[in-house]
Write a structure and sequence with these properties.
The structure is a homodimer of 330-residue chains. Chain A is built from 12 helices and 12 strands. Chain A has 330 residues and is α/β, with parallel strands linked by helices. The first copy, chain A, has a 5-stranded mixed β-sheet with strand order 3-2-1-4-7, with helices on both faces. The mean pLDDT of chain A is 92.
């Protein structure tokens, strides 16, 4: 008799952000077959969120037979996490949540094995397995959005820390005495190169009377400036928008150079909501690498855009579950 | 018949610095049985240095029978190294040396298998196996001397990068626009908290007319100030010396906090020639960790002195060889 036929199976992925959660049902090759989403509403507490997630999951599994094919759930959430216990410690994007045992709560609610990681770690894993980092063994992934997060792949695997999720790259201090960060310190990378920082810097310069089409784009209301809007203005030729992105890119360049000197990656991938700024942001980073890393390491380290875009974390959650399943069945 | 008796064996260790090299003959438990040393004289080139090392090694192996017990040689040298080919790329402390195939040259010269790593990586490995880091799975080791180097142990193993030695912690930029570093950039950690930086800062402040017993200690010749002398003056109660170490310690604290946020270690070990400054340097680092890491990770990360002192690198070279031998025989 021949060996047992390997049955195809499915993976669920959940990405929990500060304002919304996203779901995916994916196959063994990381392809997303169905999607779902809903609001997070952190003020209502974890139990209600879990109920909303469960309802959406049931919607994805409505066909008879699909549920039986699901082997587990990969879940991403903002750190810091206690990986051993599967607990959210005090995620800044879920205010009021403290020590929520998310892994066990989700396992009980959904009835599948659950694997939990920092969302940006999952972004790194997603890009490594199915995106811009395919075929590389060592890479750094940075997600630029409201904040800055980072993930590291070394030897083809996510770098794992002792207890909490590692690589809080956004809170690397690159300019002591610089602008104040949400973490309370001054001069964190996140306070200089995140989407929040880009929007704030553009608003500051407009308030000082500098001219730019951005002002018309928000009808004179500078508080409505977002990093996405700065990126759009830059693409349309606005000089001030380009300068703001250039400056943010130079700070990001210092952060990226520091990370390369510490982790010695083959590739740096930049993703997250701000990456629409493209080369206006990445070219200064490449210049910094060319100037400070290449002469020292005697080789190029490319800095590229993420390929999965908004799906990096979700696809990474699929990859996490696939890894865990393959580790237990092989 | 019972299993074959496991024969005891010996390891040679070589630590190549910019001014001198050091040798050790050690047993399987990392204990140094015999020592040797000699001048490096980089201007004479690698061939002559290798001849001097060979002569000293022969001196250590003079007993008949000892040579037959040696299973290999662990070697440390300053980076950047190409680990795959065992080549020194362009070590700043060996000026004029470019692309020296040290591993193969030593193997040919000494007639034993040779394993080569960055000297500070070996310091980390030495402290992990036989020093202050025993029993920890994740730690960072920083060596403060002329420059600042760092090594990382994760999961009980040295972090390995793609090609060159990783963790150039001294060139992490923590103060753009700060003092110029030997690497050409401004504001590297090394330019603010190394032995060189401490001596320079003390000399600057003395030249500006500040009072201190350090001036008498060098007979008014401020160019003779060393970090060791600043440390001694601090221990003897000198206020300026203590201030200089406090400032250097605060910068070191920023670097250590950044490293903890990136690598999430259980322990930070500080060693190298400057560590005689002890708590005058380490207390500001501990304060920085208490202020910026503990609330975030919700646990303490101790910052301690190295236990092997000047032998960290040499003992680490022994540990490297032991690891490699155990990997091939098990």
């Amino acid at each position: 008799m021949p060996g047992a036929v390997k049955m195809p199976f499915l993976i669920l992925a959940v990405d929990i952000g500060g304002t919304s959660f996203r779901l995916a049902l994916a196959d063994e090759r990381g392809r997303i077959l169905r999607r779902g989403s809903g609001p997070t509403r952190p003020e209502e507490g974890p139990e209600r969120l879990l109920r909303r997630i469960k309802t959406k999951v049931e919607g994805l599994l409505i066909d008879s037979g699909t549920r039986a094919m699901v082997k587990g759930v990969g879940v991403g959430a903002a750190g810091p996490l206690d990986l051993e216990s599967g607990m959210l410690l005090h995620p800044p994007n879920l205010p009021g949540w403290h020590h929520v045992p998310l892994k066990s709560m989700l396992e009980e609610s959904l009835g599948f094995p659950v694997w939990l990681r920092n969302d940006v770690d999952l972004g790194a894993l997603g890009e490594h397995r199915f995106g811009a980092g395919r075929g590389f063994q060592q890479l750094i992934y940075l997600a630029l959005g409201t904040g800055i997060g980072g993930g590291v792949i070394l030897g083809g695997q996510l770098l794992s820390g002792t207890r909490v999720s590692a690589m809080e790259a956004g809170h690397m201090v690159v300019s002591p005495g610089g602008p104040r960060c949400n973490c309370g310190r001054e001069g964190c990378l996140e306070a200089l190169a995140s989407g929040t920082a880009i929007a704030r810097r553009a608003a500051e310069r407009l308030s000082q009377g500098e001219r730019s089409q951005m002002l018309e784009m928000v009808n004179g209301k500078v508080e409505r400036i977002t990093a996405e809007l700065v990126a759009r203005a830059a693409r349309e030729g606005d000089a001030l928008a380009r300068q703001v992105l250039q400056e943010a890119g130079e700070w990001l360049g210092i952060g990226v150079v520091n990370l390369i000197l510490l982790f010695d990656p083959e590739l740096v991938i930049v993703g997250g909501g701000v990456i629409g700024a493209g080369d206006f942001l990445l070219e200064p980073v490449r210049q910094a690498v060319k100037r400070w890393v290449v002469p020292y390491f005697e080789r190029e380290v490319p800095v590229v855009r993420s390929r999965l875009g908004g799906d990096s974390n979700l696809v990474g959650a699929v990859a996490l579950a696939l890894d865990e399943i393959s580790a237990t069945t092989s």
